[in-house]
Amino acid sequence: MAQRIRIRLKAFDHVVLDQAAADIVRTAEKTGAQVSGPIPLPVKTERWTVLRSPHVDKKSREQFEIRTHKRLIDIFEPTPQTVDALMKLDLPAGVDVEIKAFGKEHGK
């Protein structure tokens, strides 16, 4: 069995992301695992500048940005019930979940 599970969440909306992180933490603690997090990671901001008009009015531009919020959750000493509960968990739409499991051979 894995000694640690690392869950990385990404979303454009931080409210939905925090709600999903709270659901994961609540589920893991209910099954008896130790939880570290959610740890907020730096926000990735992408910006674009677009001309408003294709011909004249070169100085008239529009700017758009999209922010990607990220959270990190570590679950230590997960039980089989923890893994089953996390698999059955229904997260909101728009949240990307990456799960990695580490055994004893991985550091710390």
Blueprint (SSEs and pairs):
Elements: E1 4-11, H1 14-30, E2 34-51, E3 61-76, H2 80-88, E4 96-102
Antiparallel strand pairs: 1-3, 1-4, 2-3
Structure, described:
This protein has about 110 residues and is of the alpha+beta class. Helix content is about 25%, strand content about 45%. It has helices at about 15-30, 80-90, and strands spanning about 5-10, 35-50, 60-75, 95-100. A 4-stranded antiparallel beta sheet has the order 2-3-1-4. Helix 1 runs antiparallel to helix 2. The longest helix has 17 residues, at about 15-30. The two termini are about 15 Å apart. The model has no long low-confidence stretch (mean pLDDT about 85).
As a percent range, the share of strand residues is over 45%
Oligomeric nature of the chains? single chain
- How many helical stretches? 2
Q: Which of globular, elongated, flat, extended, rod-shaped describes the shape? A: elongated
> How much helix, percentage-wise, in residues?
10-25%
What's the helix-strand series? EHEEHE
Q: Report low-confidence residues grouped into runs of 5 or more.
A: none
Strand order of the largest sheet: 2-3-1-4
Please tell me how large the radius of gyration is.
19 Å
| Average pLDDT number | 87
Biggest β-sheet strands, sense, barrel: 4 strands, antiparallel
Query: What is the CA–CA distance across the termini?
Result: 16 Å
How many E strands? 4
Q: Give the class from helix and strand content and strand pairing.
A: alpha+beta
Key features?
108 residues; alpha+beta; four-stranded antiparallel β-sheet; 2 helices; 4 strands
